[in-house]
Amino acid sequence: MSHRSTHDDITIRLAVLNDCESIGDLHFKTHKQSFSKFASPSWIKARTNPSYIKFWCDHLAKQDPSERTWKAERGGCIVGTVSIIPLERSTKIFHPRYHHGIAPGRMACLRLMYVDPDEQRNGIGRILMEKVKGYLSSTGYQLATLITHVANKEARSFYQRMGWELDEIFKAQVPEFFPEPENMRQRARYRYLLSH
Hints:
Layout: E1 11-14, H1 20-34, H2 41-46, H3 49-62, E2 68-74, E3 77-86, E4 107-115, H4 124-138, E5 143-149, H5 153-161, E6 165-171, E7 186-193
Parallel strand pairs: 4-5
Antiparallel strand pairs: 1-2, 2-3, 3-4, 5-7, 6-7
């Protein structure tokens, strides 16, 4: 059931290890529903909820102090998530093609942004993005990147509305993500330039 968000009913907090099951459930639900628009039926069918929970338990347990993962909550339920990590700690495919001469230590990447499909278009993604932009600006980052599937038109449209610019389209399997068939490896990298 969809609710119209008033922003007052959404709380943004840092995620903790005890959130891994709820966030894993959210990630699983998002892939099953949102990715069905472009992923193969066999890839969708192969998803298992326990693998997503394990992914998030590992991610939150190993998170470096320089990284942040936020959760958006409504009524005590997690309805969105997003992570920011220094670009230096990420795989090479997150590195921008055009970096405007900015030092690597001043770049970050946005990862693992998911909003419950039943809650999309209620402003939760925008609230999470505002949190990310505020954090990036307050900590001295000058450029951020993110990657999404080229076929994920809804996500790409959202990022563009939020001010992200296309950096490059390329083909790759993200090493730490779930294995994907060849037809899902077309990626779009976006960059967001912060003014300081």
